[in-house]
Amino acid sequence: MTAFRGIRRPVLLYAGALIGAAHAFTIGLTRSRGRILLREMSEYLFGKGFGNEPNLLPVATLSELRSSSPIRLHDLDSVDGNVTLEELAVLASAVVRHKPERLFEIGTFDGRTTLNLATNTGPDARIWTLDLPQSDLRDARFPIESGEARYIVKPMSGARFVNAPEAAKITQLYGDSAAFDYGPYIGEMDFVFVDASHAYDYVMNDSVKALAMIGHRNGVIFWHDYSVWDGVTRALNELHRRDPAFAGLRWIEGTSLAVMTVHQ
Predict the structure, then answer these.
(1) Three-state DSSP class for 88?
(2) How many Å apart are CA 83 and CA 35, to the nearest integer?
(3) Are the C-beta atoms of residues 210 and 106 closer than 8 Å to each other?
(4) Cβ atoms within 10 Å, residue 157
(5) Which residues of the chain fall below pLDDT 70?
(6) What is the pLDDT of residue 48?
(7) Looking at residue 34, what is its pLDDT?
(8) 3-state secondary structure of 261
(9) Does residue 131 contact residue 156 with C-beta atoms inside 8 Å?
(10) SS3 content of the chain, % helix, strand, coil (to 5)
(11) For residue 231, which phi and psi values (nearest 5 degrees)?
């Protein structure tokens, strides 16, 4: 009996770890905390040098970004490639707080974020969302990260908003974000969300274009998948360290979002 008690705790811990690992590699992939946990597991097993970029951005807390006004959320169910429900609430709160009228999203995917941005903006707001069509995948200017094709190969972009009333506010654009002509949008946006390719070169390109679209206006830029995809993390770390224009970059603690408020 004593021997049984001696092994009971290790067995329960082992079983709990197995259940946790199974969750992390399935449902956990759709949640930012789950993806962060996977990165931490990799660091524990292989060390930080094993393809893991450290979080170097200053930290912003969720309490700093909450809006006192109510938000509305649609399509709460998420799939791999979506922001988490918590991240969706952060983005919706930012829209309610900043009241942008011209928004640009780099990376549409299924349009879940686009729909919720539109839901929480005013009646005169306009949203442009850019997605790489499946037919252009092979001709992308920069190499796409391994595993990203599943976000590009889909029946259609923006499926979640296409039949929604909010679709009247949304313009779907198609093209490679590294080759797209941003001319009509430069200096015209109040809010930009960067969530396209996670490859380093694309994140660098998309970040510079996002800032250019804010231009000399006051605005806010959000990025998705910081601390999860190495290309995103490395690019934002470098921009923050080397470019004074990105000195305001911060990682939102407990999420995979990064944010920068632009004041002119």
Answers:
(1) helix
(2) 11
(3) yes
(4) 23
(5) 1-51, 264
(6) 38
(7) 56
(8) strand
(9) no
(10) 45, 15, 40
(11) -60, -40
Between the alpha carbon of residue 213 and those of residues 57, 124, 168, 245, the distances in Å are 23, 19, 22, 13
Give dist(CA 133, CA 153) in Å, integer.
Answer: 8
For strands 191-194 and 257-262, give the pairing: unpaired
pTM equals 0.82
The full set of domain ranges for the chain reads 2-46, 59-262
Q: Residue 132 carries which side chain, given as an amino acid letter?
A: L
The reported pLDDT for the residue numbered 68 is 83
Give tens-digit pLDDT for 127-163: 999 999 999 988 999 998 878 989 999 999 999 999 9
| CATH number, domain 59-262, options 3.40.50.150, 3.10.50.30, 2.40.110.10, 1.20.120.1770 | 3.40.50.150
Residue 134 to residues 176, 231, 240, Cα–Cα distance (Å): 10, 21, 32
Amino acid making up residue 101: E
